[in-house]
Design brief:
single chain, mainly alpha, 279 residues, disordered N terminus, 0% strand, 8 helices
Length: 279
């Protein structure tokens, strides 16, 4: 699986696979002119696949006996809709929130599922296709992607805060909750509200990133076992261990990628539901 590992040290192999295909070399920690091309491309492709899958399910929907694909999508839609109804009480808002939650779940699941592909498969294909450079194919293992998703949820929360409560009502809430409408508490209340918005957004994105980044590292370590095989007792043991460990971790990782997609979706629903609540 890991042919490169035979000519690189373990550290060099992992560092190589943790690099992104970028528009330019990064020269500073906060270099906002640099973006990860591979994350953008794979996230966009998987987003298009998400839209196509949901469109295909809607197009083939029938009132008769559903097929397996339609039945699976119907179960998923019903699950998401029930969760949205229990959290977001505004029926008008759910016309946007429910499809958004469904799209988030499927899109994030597909992005997470890229971790199940062999570590060197797509980089090998792309490299031999004439495209030079690094290639990371798990968009959710990129902090910029997960934070972009969480910031998008934040912006939608701000929109619903203003839409449901009115600009004046929301501004009043910012300065009077959670400690009460006392003038000397206004700065404290405002600071607490801002901290809450920031902490929810950061933890929302960091949780998904941290779990997927850790999973990606485990797959790289398992790939190193396969790359170190040889015609010796130790080498054969590493090759067997590589297959067993890879299979076990992949099966367990299916649960992780599904759970992380579900958690992100549920937190998005909870934060949007809180935007509808008055304090």
């Amino acid at each position: 699986m890991a042919a490169e590992a035979q000519t690189q040290t373990a550290g060099e192999y992992i560092i190589h696979h943790l690099h992104h295909l970028r528009n330019a070399e990064q020269t500073a920690v906060a270099d906002f002119g640099i973006y990860n091309i591979d994350s953008i491309i794979w996230a966009a492709l998987l987003g298009a696949l998400t839209c196509w899958l949901l469109w295909a399910a809607a197009r083939k929907a029938t009132s008769g006996v559903p097929g397996r694909f339609q039945a699976a999508v119907e179960v998923l839609v019903e699950m998401v809709d029930n969760q949205a109804k229990g959290i977001v009480r505004n029926a008008e808002s759910r016309k946007l929130v429910s499809p958004l939650a469904l799209t988030l779940f499927v899109w994030i699941f597909l992005m997470n599922a890229m971790d199940l592909l062999p570590v060197d498969l797509i980089p090998y294909i792309i490299e031999h296709g004439g495209i030079a450079g690094y290639q990371r194919v798990v968009p959710t293992a990129d902090l910029s992607v997960t934070m972009g998703l969480s910031v998008s949820v934040l912006l939608l929360c701000l929109y619903y805060n203003v839409k449901i409560k009115g600009l004046g009502g929301w501004m009043h809430e910012l300065f009077t909750a959670p400690f009460g409408a006392k003038w000397f508490l206004y700065p404290v209340n405002f600071a607490m509200q801002i901290i809450e918005f920031i902490s929810k957004t950061v933890s929302h994105g960091m949780r998904l990133f941290g779990n997927m980044y850790a999973g990606e590292l485990v797959f790289m370590l398992i790939a190193l076992m396969g790359g170190a095989w040889s015609l010796s007792a130790t080498g054969i043991g590493l090759a067997v261990g590589h297959v067993i460990a890879g299979t076990v971790w992949a099966i367990f990782h299916i649960l992780i990628i599904t759970l992380q997609a579900f958690i992100f979706m549920m937190l998005a629903l909870i934060y949007l539901g809180q935007a509808h609540d008055a304090h």
